[in-house]
Amino acid sequence: MNDTVIARGGCLCGAVRYEVVDEPYKVSWCHCRTCRKATGAPAVVMVMFDEGAVRYSTGTPARYESSPGVTRTHCARCGTPLTWEGQWDGRMVFELHAGTLDEPGRFAPTRHAFVDHRIDWVRFGDGLPEFDQAGPST
Ligand SMILES: [Zn+2]
Ligand SMILES: [Zn+2]
């Protein structure tokens, strides 16, 4: 595991801050209903890392089990959704909400996932591949 910090981020109020020390496994738009409810946004970008690639430098988020084996975290003070944590492709992964990065442009999405849940008026035209459900593992 590399120990060089390559990105930083945190919640709106600053009570929770994190550091990223490894490159992401994948970066994906997610149109699923659960992400929508958890964030209030019509779609989100999730940046997936292996467990251990992200560490908290200030505070720790509140945890919520959004489905069996899946934990979503948020700042208990300001409410910012921060992560999705669970099993993916047989391993524990840690997904950050891209909008919480200080420089969200650092990790660009390469796909749309759960387009079977997409809201009718959501239009992108970005040419990225689209998948029902989660799509292929990488
Ligand atoms: Zn906060
Ligand atoms: Zn989702």
What do these coordinates show?
The mean pLDDT is 94. The longest helix is centred in the first third of the chain and has 7 residues, at 33-39. The protein has a seven-stranded mixed sheet. Strands 1-2-5 form a three-stranded antiparallel sheet, with no helix packed on it. With 138 residues, it is mainly beta. Helix content is 5%, strand content 38%. It has one helix and ten strands. It has one helix spanning 33-39; strands at residues 7-10, 17-20, 26-30, 44-50, 54-58, 62-67, 70-74, 81-88, 91-97, 112-113. It has one domain (7-117): Beta Complex (Metal Binding Protein, Guanine Nucleotide Exchange Factor, Chain A), CATH 2.170.150. One zinc ion is lined by residues 30, 32, 34-35, 114. One zinc ion (ZN) is lined by residues 30, 32, 34-35, 114.
Secondary structure elements and their pairing?
Layout: E1 7-10, E2 17-20, E3 26-30, H1 33-39, E4 44-50, E5 54-58, E6 62-67, E7 70-74, E8 81-88, E9 91-97, E10 112-113
Parallel strand pairs: 3-10
Antiparallel strand pairs: 1-2, 2-5, 3-4, 4-9, 6-7, 7-8, 8-9
Bound molecules: zinc ion (ZN) (2 copies).
Residues 11-13, 15-16, 75, 77-78, 80 line the site of one zinc ion.
* H and E order: EEEHEEEEEEE
Structural class: mainly beta
From the N-terminal CA to the C-terminal CA, the straight-line distance is 20 Å
State the domain count: 1
In the CATH scheme, what's the topology name? Answer: Metal Binding Protein, Guanine Nucleotide Exchange Factor, Chain A
Report the radius of gyration as a whole number of Å: 14 Å
Q: Which segments are poorly predicted (pLDDT under 50) over 5 or more consecutive residues?
A: none
How would you characterize the largest beta sheet?
7 strands, mixed
**Reading side by side through the largest sheet, how are the strands ordered?**
6-7-8-9-4-3-10
